[in-house]
Structure formats: structure tokens, C-alpha cells
């Protein structure tokens, strides 16, 4: 009897052994159906069969008629589990988040029947003309011809059109005419094409100022990948960005690519998964989870906006999609391109160490100039009491709108106000589940916790002292800025772009279309507006609070603030008219402000490196966070103390804490943190395994490990 190890998509520490039935020859990567408790579940054969020994095993129920999971993807699952100290089954679950037992839907398209001789009405002739280029589905054909599906059915009934089975995705055409590249773009594109043709692992940073045409440049690498008949994966930090990206892709390749994100219906996700596994999706763009799709021949990976912290997953498996993408590219023997105007210090350092290649686009495309960035010192130009826009800002917006151009007000804070307090007794409205203030959302007439989602109606009186109408909104969010803008610029057409108001790719596409059609004069937005958008008529960007994000002890506070403000400033002046960015700040001499105004991103990052290097802070050292949580505060404190006493003590290792996390109560659980800091030559994973093995952890206490933490909340 032979046994096979089968990894299941559940938080188990490893594979389970099952009996290989007679006549069922299983190999690593095969997807199988196996019994688990009283149900059947899908798993993956993880290694070669071995003699079973004497113990009884449950047999594998069925080998599924699906492409096996490739060796590079299995290696990636093992690597992510090992590096980020996650259970392998939890990592596998990210690759099997669809119902694999359901067959993909058959997709029917129609083509014109050759030599059809019947008589046709003008409406039917118009419809047939839309089939001249290539077959289309009934829905697409009805939209293109402006007719109902009944006309299509009637044409099929008389034999004028013929139904055929059609792939879910049309192959992009690498020879479809694209835009004319600048000399710098063409040189960088040539280098990327060479890397794709080599079919070898490499990592290249494609850096370029905002508006330099980085996307069109790496499109040429995708085109070469298509010529090689291999697949390409593009990761975006937020799928809301996909609307403009998809339009640019369609202009270059004639069709849109496959898309992968959480807004897809289960059926669409299943069909896309099958298309990827069968090689019928040559190009896919998606969020970080797309990294675990079953590409059989991945020839290129692109990570756009590689510096974005949203590539780090903070729930479940705490992996960083950018870093895991580099590892998958190595396993696939494929090049990977990291793209950013403001790359992370980790990536900049890897370039300096010679690990990554570097291509630079120093100028904006088509002769456009970079925006002029200037500070507005709020000590010199304070806003009126209770308001948040200074007079120079008001004058600049008026002048911009008068010229028929678009302006943007940026504040990286959702809602109406971040804090609500009682003017009578000082009570502050706080979440009952988290150590966080409730954020007022005036449009919803609610106070909401942005960490756990707890929501309460805005009370008419103070819940602590019963004082009537005593609750005051403290500080601004984008809704409050929009209210102020409505009073200052009443004739302007305004749009708020924030993730709680534009929560899907479809809503983002509608907003972008309105801006591009010049149906919007004034955009008020959070960090959603900072990433990758191209609005040709936007010439003024106002950062309402440029100091936001610099407070606190976050290791990367300065780097993140510079990246965010550089990106949002770069939305201005991307076409013919010159752009301007104005930063409201109380500290115009801060190194971040000086770097932004001088356009000296490289100098700022060099200073950051000098600050971090002596203390072995990333990327010059290693960090790992240990987060202890429990519904009982005393239990969390006890386990944290035990872990602190068992902490490793050795040269080049420091353990900080335990201490209450900044969010010491989150979703009803009390949280304590320890931080392990070590030099780069130390394996923190093996150190952590030995350390945690010394302390018994009660079932009610959860210990989470965050390797290379990005958030310190």
C-alpha cells in the first residue's frame, strides 16, 4: 500500500497522509478530493507516494481533472509558510479560494455564417457588420450594435449567425500599434524586452518621475512576453486603479486582460482561475492574491507602485506580496519588474548592493513639466477659526477654476471628523471594541470605528453627562473639507474620492470617467487619489495637512509621507498646462518638506539610510513582531511577560517590550507586542521557533508573528 501526503487548505501544520488507491497513480501537484472528518475537501498531493507502513489510512477519493499545481507554485507556498512562519495549509488556501469541483461555465459567442444568402433588414445587417472582425458574445454584440438580444436570437434561428464555444479572454495582440515612446522609454523598453527573451530570473527597478510613462514602457516587456507565448502577471496595490490601467492596456494591445480581485463574483473567479491554469489568460492584472494563481508558464511579473504598504497583508498570513513576487519569479526563472516613482528604501538598497538592476525615466513624457511644489506656512497664513483652508489656498483654487482647469484637495483622512467630544464634560466618543476614537461620517449620520467597523448613530446628547447638543466635531476629514469647499466654491462641480465612498472598481471607473470628461471641477480625496491616476486637466493639487503621518514613532513615517505627498503632487500638470502643488504645513523646514520642494528624493533616501544603518534597522537589519492577544487583559499580560523572560539574549539581537500595542484593544482583544531586532546575518525564523517553544500558550491566547512588519499598530 502506498501513502501520499496531501496538503489541505486549512490551518494545519503540514500535509496529511492518505492511501493511494490501486490504479490511481498520483504525482506531486495533483489536485485530489479526500475525506476530512465527515466531508470531502480538495487538496494537493505534496510529495511522491511512499510505502504506507502498518497504520490504516483513508483512501484518496478522486483525482480531479484539473491541471496539477506547478512545482514553482508549490515551492512558493512552502517558502511563504517558512519565511513568514505561517501554516502551510493557510498559505495553500490563498491559492484554492474557489470551488474547484464546479466546472467552468461554457462561454458562447457568435460568428457570421459564411455565404448566408437570406434577406436581412437594415438592423440585422448592422448587427452582422459588428461580427466582421471577430466572434462576440451575445451581450457584447448587443451592446456594440445597440440592439436587444432578441435580434441576435432571431438571426441565429435563420442561420445568419452561428454559435461557437469561445474562450473567456481574447489574446492581446503584441503587434497592435501603441504610443510613440520617448528615447528614454524606448531604451528602457529594449532592456526589459531583452530580460524577457533571456528567460532567466532577474529583478529590475523601473524608476521614473510621475508622468514619465513607466506603464507604457513595461507594456513593451508584456508584449515581448506574449511573443514568447508565455504569461504575464501585473500586481497593482489597489484594484480601484485598474479602470484607467485597463483602458491604457486596451489601447496598446487591442483587448483588456484578465482581472483578479475581491469584487469578482464567485463564478467569474472560478472561470478566471481555470483560464489562468489552462493558459487561456495570457495577461492578468490583479491584487496581491493574484500572486497565488496557477500560471503554467509565467514569463514576467510586474509589481506596479512597489513601494505601497498595501502589498503587505495584515490579516491571516502576514506576507508581503512584493517580496513574495520576487521569490516566485526566481522559482519561475522569469524576470520581475518593480515600478515606482518613489521606490522603497529596501528596493533602493538592493539596487545599490547590485542585487537589482535599475532603469530610470528622469523626465515627463511628451514635454510635460513636473509640478512646482511650494509650502504654505500655516503659522503665517492660518485658516479662519473652525476652517482648514488658508487664504493662499483659496486664492489658488479660485484662479485654477477660473481658467477652466481642475483642482484637487487632498487629505489622507476619511469621514467628517476623526474625533467627537463633549464640550461640557470632555467625554470622547470611543469604540467599545478598540482603543480608537469613533470617526464621524456625517453623510451616514453615524460614528464608525475604522478598525473593527463598530457603528453607532450620532447621539443628540452626551452619553456621559446627558448634555444636549454638546458634541463637537474635532479636526477635519475629507467630508468636512468637501463641506468647506462647497461654501467657498459653490459653483464648482465636486467629487469625493475615498475608499468608503468609492469601494469597487466599477465605482472608481465611473468617477474617473466623470473627471476625464471634465464633468468635475474639484476633486476632494484621500490616498486613493495619489496612486497612478492620469487626469490631463488637473493642474493644482492642495495637500490640506502635509504634516499628517509625520507624528508618532513609526520607523518609516518620513519615507511614507514623502512617497505619498510626492505621488499626490505628481497628479498635477501631467499634460500641456503646468502644474502646481501647495503643501499646508506648520513645519516647512522638516526634511520631508525640504526634499519635496527641492525634488530631491534620492538625497532624502540617502539620509534615511544613514539614520537606519548604525542601529541595524531595515533594510540593514531584521525585524519581527510578536503580537499577543486575548479577550482577557490579564492573560495577555501573563503570556507577554513569560515570553519576555524567555527572550533570546545574544550579540546582535535586541528584544524590545513587552508593551501595550498602540491599538492595545482591537476587535475586543487586548494586545501586547514584543519586537525582535537582529543583524541581517541572523535567521530570525529559527530564533523565533526556539523561543516560542519554551513558553506554553493557553488556548484562549493567540500569538501572531509578523516578519518584516510594515505596520506597528
Total beta strands: 31
Shape: globular
Remind me, CATH topology of the largest domain? Rossmann fold
Text of the CATH class of the largest domain: Alpha Beta
Main β sheet profile: 7 strands, parallel
End-to-end gap: 52 Å
Instruction: Tell me the name of the CATH homologous superfamily of the largest domain.
Output: P-loop containing nucleotide triphosphate hydrolases
Q: Which radius of gyration do the C-alpha atoms yield?
A: 28 Å
Class computed from helices, strands and strand pairing: alpha/beta
Percent helix, as a range, is: 25-40%
**Mean of all residue-level pLDDT scores:** 91
Proportion of beta-strand residues: 15-25%
Helical segment count: 19
Going by CATH, the architecture of the largest domain would be 3-Layer(aba) Sandwich
Count of separate structural domains: 6
Poorly predicted sequence stretches spanning 5 or more consecutive residues: none
Strand order of the largest sheet: 12-13-11-14-15-10-16
List keywords for this structure.
single chain; 713 residues; alpha/beta; GIY-YIG endonuclease; Arc Repressor Mutant, subunit A; Rossmann fold; 6 domains; six-stranded antiparallel sheet; 29% helix; globular
Describe this structure in words.
It is a single chain. The chain has 713 residues and is of the alpha/beta class. 29% of the residues lie in helices and 23% in strands. The chain has a 7-stranded parallel β-sheet with strand order 12-13-11-14-15-10-16, sandwiched between helices. Strands 1, 2, 3, 4, 5 and 6 form a 6-stranded antiparallel β-sheet that branches. A 6-stranded parallel β-sheet has the order 17-27-26-18-25-24, with helices on both faces. Strand 14 (298-304), helix 10 and strand 15 (335-340) form a beta-alpha-beta unit. It is globular, with a radius of gyration of 28 Å. The two termini are 52 Å apart. The model has no long low-confidence stretch (mean pLDDT 91).
Amino acid at each position: 500500500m502506498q501513502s501520499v501526503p496531501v496538503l489541505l487548505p486549512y490551518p494545519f501544520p503540514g500535509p496529511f497522509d492518505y492511501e493511494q488507491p490501486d490504479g490511481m497513480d498520483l504525482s506531486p501537484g495533483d489536485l485530489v478530493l479526500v475525506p476530512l472528518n465527515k466531508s470531502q475537501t480538495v487538496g494537493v498531493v505534496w510529495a511522491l507516494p511512499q510505502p504506507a507502513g502498518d497504520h490504516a489510512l483513508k483512501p484518496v477519493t478522486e483525482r480531479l481533472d484539473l491541471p496539477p499545481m506547478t512545482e514553482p507554485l508549490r515551492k512558493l507556498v512552502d517558502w511563504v509558510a517558512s519565511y513568514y512562519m505561517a501554516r502551510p495549509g493557510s498559505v495553500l488556501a490563498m491559492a484554492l479560494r474557489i470551488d474547484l469541483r464546479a466546472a467552468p461555465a461554457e462561454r458562447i459567442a457568435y460568428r457570421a455564417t459564411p455565404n448566408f444568402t437570406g434577406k436581412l433588414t437594415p438592423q440585422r445587417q448592422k448587427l452582422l457588420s459588428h461580427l466582421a472582425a471577430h466572434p462576440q458574445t451575445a451581450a457584447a454584440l448587443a451592446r456594440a450594435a445597440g440592439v436587444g438580444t432578441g435580434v441576435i436570437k432571431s438571426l441565429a434561428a435563420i442561420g445568419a449567425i452561428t454559435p461557437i464555444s469561445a474562450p473567456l479572454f481574447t489574446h492581446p495582440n503584441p503587434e497592435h500599434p501603441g504610443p510613440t515612446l520617448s528615447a528614454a522609454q524606448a531604451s528602457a523598453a529594449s532592456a526589459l524586452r531583452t530580460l524577457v527573451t533571456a528567460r532567466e530570473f532577474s529583478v529590475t527597478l523601473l524608476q521614473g518621475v510621475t508622468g514619465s510613462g513607466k506603464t507604457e514602457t513595461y507594456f513593451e516587456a508584456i508584449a515581448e512576453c506574449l511573443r514568447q507565448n508565455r504569461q504575464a502577471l501585473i500586481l497593482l496595490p489597489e484594484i480601484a486603479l485598474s479602470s484607467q490601467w485597463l483602458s491604457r492596456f486596451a489601447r496598446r494591445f487591442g483587448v483588456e486582460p484578465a482581472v483578479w480581485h475581491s469584487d469578482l463574483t464567485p463564478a467569474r473567479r472560478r472561470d478566471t482561475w481555470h483560464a489562468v491554469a489552462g493558459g487561456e489568460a495570457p495577461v492578468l492584472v490583479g491584487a496581491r492574491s493574484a500572486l497565488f494563481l496557477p500560471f503554467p508558464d509565467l514569463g514576467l511579473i510586474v509589481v506596479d507602485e512597489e513601494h505601497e504598504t498595501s502589498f503587505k497583508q495584515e490579516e491571516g498570513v502576514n506576507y508581503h506580496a512584493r517580496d513574495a513576487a520576487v521569490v516566485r519569479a526566481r522559482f519561475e526563472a522569469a524576470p520581475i519588474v518593480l515600478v515606482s516613482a518613489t521606490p522603497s528604501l529596501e528596493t533602493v538598497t538592493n539596487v545599490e548592493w547590485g542585487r537589482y538592476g535599475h532603469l530610470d525615466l528622469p523626465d515627463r513624457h511628451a514635454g510635460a513639466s513636473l509640478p512646482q511644489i511650494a509650502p504654505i506656512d500655516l503659522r503665517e497664513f492660518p485658516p479662519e477659526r473652525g476652517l482648514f483652508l488658508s487664504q493662499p489656498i483659496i486664492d489658488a483654487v479660485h484662479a485654477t477654476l477660473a481658467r477652466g482647469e481642475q483642482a484637487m484637495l487632498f487629505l489622507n483622512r476619511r469621514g467628517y471628523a476623526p474625533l467627537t467630544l463633549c464640550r461640557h464634560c470632555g467625554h470622547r466618543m470611543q469604540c467599545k471594541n478598540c482603543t480608537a476614537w469613533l470617526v464621524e461620517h456625517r453623510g451616514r449620520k453615524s460614528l464608525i470605528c475604522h478598525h473593527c467597523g463598530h457603528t453607532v448613530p450620532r447621539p443628540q446628547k452626551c452619553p456621559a453627562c446627558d448634555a444636549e447638543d454638546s458634541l463637537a466635531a474635532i479636526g477635519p476629514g475629507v467630508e468636512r473639507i468637501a463641506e468647506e469647499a462647497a461654501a467657498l466654491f459653490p459653483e464648482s462641480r465636486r467629487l469625493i474620492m475615498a475608499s468608503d465612498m468609492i469601494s469597487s472598481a466599477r465605482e472608481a471607473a465611473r468617477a474617473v470617467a466623470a473627471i476625464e470628461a471634465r464633468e468635475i471641477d474639484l476633486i476632494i480625496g484621500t490616498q486613493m487619489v495619489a496612486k497612478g491616476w492620469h487626469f490631463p486637466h488637473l493642474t493644482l493639487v492642495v495637500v490640506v495637512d502635509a504634516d499628517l503621518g509625520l507624528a508618532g514613532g513609526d520607523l518609516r513615517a518620513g519615507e511614507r509621507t514623502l512617497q505619498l505627498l510626492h505621488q499626490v503632487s505628481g497628479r498635477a500638470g501631467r499634460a500641456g498646462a503646468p502644474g502646481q502643488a501647495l503643501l499646508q504645513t506648520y513645519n516647512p523646514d522638516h526634511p520631508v518638506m525640504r526634499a519635496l520642494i527641492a525634488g530631491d528624493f534620492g538625497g532624502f533616501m540617502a539620509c534615511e539610510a544613514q539614520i537606519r544603518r548604525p542601529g541595524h534597522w531595515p533594510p540593514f537589519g531584521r525585524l519581527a513582531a510578536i503580537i499577543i492577544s486575548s479577550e482577557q487583559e490579564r492573560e495577555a499580560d501573563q503570556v507577554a511577560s513569560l515570553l519576555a523572560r524567555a527572550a533570546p539574549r545574544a550579540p546582535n539581537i535586541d528584544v524590545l517590550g513587552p508593551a501595550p500595542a498602540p491599538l492595545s484593544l482591537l476587535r475586543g482583544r487586548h494586545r501586547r507586542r514584543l519586537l525582535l531586532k537582529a543583524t541581517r546575518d541572523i535567521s530570525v525564523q529559527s530564533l523565533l521557533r526556539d523561543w516560542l517553544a519554551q513558553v506554553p500558550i493557553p488556548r484562549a491566547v493567540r500569538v501572531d508573528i509578523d516578519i518584516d512588519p510594515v505596520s506597528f499598530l
